[in-house]
């Protein structure tokens, strides 16, 4: 059964939704029975054009255009990074610096040449060995945030490719988190008709619960 999809913003040219964890955005990126694109198309009863991707295991803000011209304009803006700001929240094993801009080349794909990649990070909160981190990728490389967190020695919880199995198991078994601890919580982009739109998605319930559970696990016992 497909999880409910919330519409965060809709007008004549674009629709922004809150993607549940576990859904792929576009069928071309996997072979799911119902990708997010099809679900949103059914929800708004018109054809939609995906503008960017979000990992299957992640949740949060995803933008679709409602016409070909809007899709072209938004695609160019995302490609150029012009007036586009993407913000993510992540749970990490380890505490990154309070603020860091990481310039670290990563491969476009496994086995390919490394290309420039930049992510800005802010440490928002710590609880025991873990941290809540905000990330703003300034380039659009595959798995960029996940790879950069690994480079900082602060791997993303729930990441089976770049993370640590021991800590993924702790969050699964003790804190009830069964997916990637990554949430796209804000997207700012230039509207095709002019001006700027900024849309927020509240932190997903399973991540809220996992953070509360992890905090409770390290809270001092009252006398």
Folded structure, characterized:
This protein has 223 residues and is of the alpha+beta class. It has one domain: Pseudouridine synthase (2-Layer Sandwich), CATH 3.30.2350. The protein contains 5 helices and 12 strands. A hairpin with a 5-residue loop joins strand 11 and strand 12. The N and C termini lie far apart (47 Å).
Which second-level CATH architecture applies? 2-Layer Sandwich
Q: Which word captures the global form?
A: globular
CATH level 1 name: Alpha Beta
Q: Structural class given helices, strands, pairing?
A: alpha+beta
Q: Give the number of DSSP strands.
A: 12
Strand residue content = 25-35%
Distance between the termini: 47 Å
Which range best describes the helical content: under 10%, 10-25%, 25-40%, 40-55%, 55-70% or over 70%?
A: 10-25%
Oligomer: single chain
Domains (count):
1
pLDDT under 50 segments (min length 5)? Answer: none
Report mean pLDDT, rounded to a whole number: 93
In short, what is this structure?
By secondary structure, this protein is α+β, with helices and mostly antiparallel strands. It is 25% helix and 31% strand. The protein is built from five helices and twelve strands.
């Amino acid at each position: 059964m497909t999880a409910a999809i919330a519409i965060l913003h809709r007008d004549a040219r674009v629709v922004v939704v809150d993607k549940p964890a576990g859904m792929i955005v576009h069928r071309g990126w996997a072979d799911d029975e119902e990708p997010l694109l099809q679900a949103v198309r059914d929800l708004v009863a018109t054809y939609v054009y995906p503008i960017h991707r979000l990992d299957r295991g992640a949740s949060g803000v995803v933008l679709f255009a409602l016409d070909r011209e809007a899709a072209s304009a938004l695609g160019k803006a995302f490609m150029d990074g012009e007036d586009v700001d993407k913000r993510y929240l992540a749970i990490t094993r380890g505490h990154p610096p309070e603020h860091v801009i990481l310039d670290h080349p990563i491969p476009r794909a496994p086995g390919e040449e490394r290309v420039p990649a930049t992510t800005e990070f802010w440490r928002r909160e710590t609880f025991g060995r873990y941290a809540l981190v905000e990330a703003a990728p300034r380039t659009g490389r595959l798995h960029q945030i996940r790879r950069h967190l690994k480079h900082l020695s602060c791997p993303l919880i729930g990441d089976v490719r770049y993370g640590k199995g021991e800590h993924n198991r702790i969050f699964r078994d003790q804190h009830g988190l069964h997916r990637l601890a990554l949430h796209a919580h804000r997207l700012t982009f230039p509207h095709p008709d002019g001006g700027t739109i900024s849309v927020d998605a509240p932190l997903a319930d399973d991540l809220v619960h996992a953070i509360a559970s992890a905090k409770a696990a390290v809270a001092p016992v009252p006398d």
